[in-house]
Amino acid sequence: MKASGIIVEYNPFHNGHLYHAIQAKITTGADVVIAVMSGNFLQRGEPAFVDKWSRANMALKNGVDIVLELPYAFATSNAPSFARGAIQLLDAAQCSAFCFGSEDGEVNSFERSLLLLQQAGDNYEQTVKDAVSRGLSYPKALNEAYTMAANSSTIEGPLADLSKPNNILGFHYMEAARNIDSEMKAVTIPRIVAQYHDDAVAGNPIASATGIRKSFFESETLGTITDFMPDTALELLHDWQAENQSFGNWPTFYPQLRFTILREGPKRLAMIADVTEGIENLLYRAAADNGTFEGFMKDVKSKRYTWTRLQRMLTHIFTGFTYDIRSSMKTPSYLRLLGMTSAGRLYLNEHKKRLKLPLISKAAAFSNPSLDFDIHAADMYALGIGNGTSSSRIGVDYNTHPIIIQ
To answer: Which fold has domain 3-103+189-247+330-405?
Structure first.
């Protein structure tokens, strides 16, 4: 059996994701689709709309055959690290191809961009450092360096537009695969209708996850997002709403985040991953002065710190993810199974002796610092969702077995 790998967050799963999963299988001629999915905290530094178990269930009912968890250390990191961890897991799972959505919609432009930066070498890295030292955010510094390299390039043919969010991730997926000499074939399909940050538009069946979440939080009703999701995914959101006090976002989590910041103080905040350049003092003052997340972010946002970079800091503060902890998690060391279909089970049975990393189906049966932190992060997420009350589902990762869809 052949597997096509995809890298996802499903925050939440929508019709565009269904299209991607189907096209990944068709385009690559695969028998199964394996999704490496972020856990309860995401790459842009946000709590997930619903937990990983609900999102895995949505995926398995809508075209995905195996869901593996991307460990916290990679799921909440910058694009290169996020891509590196995810690609290593897909390679370890013996995927023959990986398929990503992009604004460009064709692989050749990404291959030319990889060649461009390979040729630019140290000059490119130095340009990035110089731009950051002038006060540019890291993403803008990367884009400036890339544009300068492209303007002086003799490579024939169009390059990937690395100002677009899905193109950026796609570039890093291909870079990560090249760096580990993976035999997986890279395939991309164009995003259709809605782009990464587009609002949800009534009557249009495709909307971005960002637009769907915005629409829900503005209306506080699932009725406003019905058109954008498969029925089975929407049913799982209704189930979540019936069982939990809220959906995941920073305004919901802020009371506990604020408590954590004020309890830790600047000295200990400086030990948290991604907290740099004395910003711990600003974070502490902003938490002391603001009772809302919106007010807090207004006080700490600046040109130097993007919204995403700040949110990653807050995610690490909330979970207690320090520089020391991150330094011990350089590469994935296991495949954490969240769920599978009957076809996915057949694939794993056929390939289990060839998997490059151990497959973990029971959290209690495997001891590993990265897995321990994933379980801790799941508990912290449960506290945030349940507002620290008796409804908080602590220990869910120890008590939940992989989902099986027949």
So the answer is: Rossmann fold (3.40.50)
